[in-house]
Amino acid sequence: MTDFKKLKVWQKAHVLAMDVHRAAGQIRGAKHASLRSQMIRAAMSVPTNIVEGCSQQSTREYSRFLRIALNSTTELEYHLVAARDLAAARASDSLTLISQVIEVRKMLYGLLRYLKSRSDDESGVPRKATTQA
């Protein structure tokens, strides 16, 4: 559907994945091996699913992969909180990474909203009217 490298959300997700990979590499001790692995896997899942979604033929499938990426941001945020609370990672590093996760998550929500509105426009189905309170 689109060149993933041009997407700002992919660019931010890629930077996030690299930053998490570096931070996880600084976590020492065999007792934290699974946490390190899960952090890296969740972080890498975000840009990977954006890339996979871009190669899909339909907006519906593209959106499905973006929702998987979105779920991975939530998983990653938890791993970062756990790393901080277990004192495996510095609180300041965790907070910086969590801020990046939240930014990527907001961008993913925005892209999903955009795709939904475009899909609604193309299908000829009127969008739901919004009411002002």
Structure characterization notes:
With 133 residues, the protein is mostly helical. It has one domain (4-122): de novo design (two linked rop proteins). The model is unreliable at 129-133 (pLDDT under 50). The chain has helices at residues 8-25, 33-54, 59-85, 91-123. The protein is built from 4 helices and no strands.
Could you give a quick summary of the protein structure above?
The protein is an all-alpha fold. It has helices at residues 8-25, 33-54, 59-85, 91-123. The chain has a single domain, classed as de novo design (two linked rop proteins).
Question: What's the helix and strand layout?
Answer:
Blueprint: H1 8-25, H2 33-54, H3 59-85, H4 91-123
Helix pairs in contact: 1-2, 1-4, 2-3, 3-4
Question: Order of SSEs, N→C?
Answer: HHHH
Q: Helicity range of the residues?
A: over 70%
Q: C-alpha Rg, in Å? A: 17 Å
How many strands appear in the DSSP assignment?
Answer: 0
CATH H-level homologous superfamily name: 23S rRNA-intervening sequence
Q: What count of domains describes the coordinates?
A: 1
What about the largest sheet? none
Q: Tell me, what is the CATH class?
A: Mainly Alpha
Class computed from helices, strands and strand pairing: mainly alpha
Number of helices: 4
Uncertain residue segments: 129-133
The CATH architecture term is: Up-down Bundle
- Average pLDDT confidence is 91
Labels describing this entry:
4 helices; de novo design (two linked rop proteins); 133 residues; mainly alpha
